[in-house]
From TrEMBL:
It comes from the Bacteria. S-adenosyl-L-methionine binds at residues 86, 88, 92, 130, 160, 231-232. This is Chemotaxis protein methyltransferase. It comes from Rhizorhapis suberifaciens. InterPro entries: Bact_Chemotaxis_MeTrfase, Chemotaxis_MeTrfase_CheR, CheR_C, CheR_MeTrfase, CheR_N, CheR_N_sf, SAM-dependent_MTases_sf. PANTHER family: CHEMOTAXIS PROTEIN METHYLTRANSFERASE. One of its GO terms (biological process) is methylation.
């Protein structure tokens, strides 16, 4: 059998039988369910993240566990969650928040205060740092104005594939040291201390709704969005999947709305003709 050795890479790990065929089957499953490409260099990452599931299910081989995945939708979902990488921080790629604050926020606030509707989406929100950075930027430094903003028809959706990061986002609780990543005035206004942690304020939390959503599945969304952040998600996808996702994101974006993507990403497919660049990895949907 063409097996991948685990003992040399994981000292003390149970040496489950894990073959190239098993890796290919798991890679195919991840791609089919989540659109994520798992190159062969990720073979041992898959091993390390899934061995605990094999132990829990009493499996002796990966082939046996794959058989369970083929018939157990909940276990399949849990496996996809375990193989989803989530790296984020507050105000990551801060130029996006600076662009939003200078170029976009004033118009959205004016519309909202006049009784208009404003919708934003943090697509691939991970554990909430991105969406809370966006909301803090929206509310700003003037707390009296923020009270008026929060009372308008503004709503922000935060979605991710993985249930465990959605739960973390809802909890809105983070180690205290991450507050150093925030602009001081925004931190002072919108963050509360809680022992060794910080917690986002009630006003910030009131504006966001977290939801589990798979980019490869149906999007049961109501209405369109003025702002979409979808950053450092497409790096895990192949070109056809990127093009399909971007096309769907653009379809969900209001004409004149803004799309923010990751620093190493670019628009491909029909989206490249529908949106114009207005800043680094920042695009505006063309009004026709």
């Amino acid at each position: 059998m063409n097996a991948l050795s685990a003992k040399s890479a994981f000292e003390g790990a149970v040496d489950f039988d894990y073959s190239q065929e098993d890796f290919r089957a798991l890679s195919k499953l991840v791609y089919a369910d989540a659109g994520i490409v798992m190159p062969e260099g990720k073979a041992m990452l898959i091993y390390s993240r899934l061995t605990k599931f094999l132990r829990e299910r009493g499996c002796r081989t990966f082939a046996e566990y794959i058989g369970i995945l083929n018939s157990d939708a909940e276990e399949r979902r849990r496996t996809i969650n375990a193989l989803t990488t989530n790296h984020t921080k507050f105000f990551r790629e801060n130029h996006h928040f600076e662009h939003f604050a200078r170029q976009v926020r004033p118009g959205l606030i004016k519309r909202a205060l006049a009784g208009g509707r404003v919708r934003m989406w943090s697509a691939g929100c991970s554990s909430g740092e991105e969406v809370y950075s966006l909301i803090m930027t929206l509310l700003g430094e003037d707390k009296a104005l923020a009270q008026r903003i929060a009372a308008t028809d503004i709503a922000i959706l935060a979605s991710d594939l993985a249930d465990h990061v959605i739960a973390a986002g809802k909890a809105a609780t983070y180690p205290a040291h991450v507050a150093d990543e925030m602009p001081p005035r925004l931190r002072q206004n919108w963050v509360n201390a809680d022992g060794p942690n910080i917690v986002m304020s009630d006003m910030v939390r009131s504006l966001v709704r977290f939801r589990q959503l798979n980019f490869m599945g149906d999007w049961p969304l109501k209405g369109m969005f003025d702002i979409i952040f979808c950053r450092n998600v497409m790096i895990y996808f192949d070109e056809p999947t990127k093009a399909k996702l971007l096309d769907r994101l653009c379809a969900a974006l209001e004409p004149g709305g803004y799309l923010y993507i990751g620093h190493s990403e670019r628009l491909v497919g029909p989206a490249a003709e529908l949106c114009e660049p207005v800043g680094p990895t920042t695009y505006r949907k063309i009004e026709r």
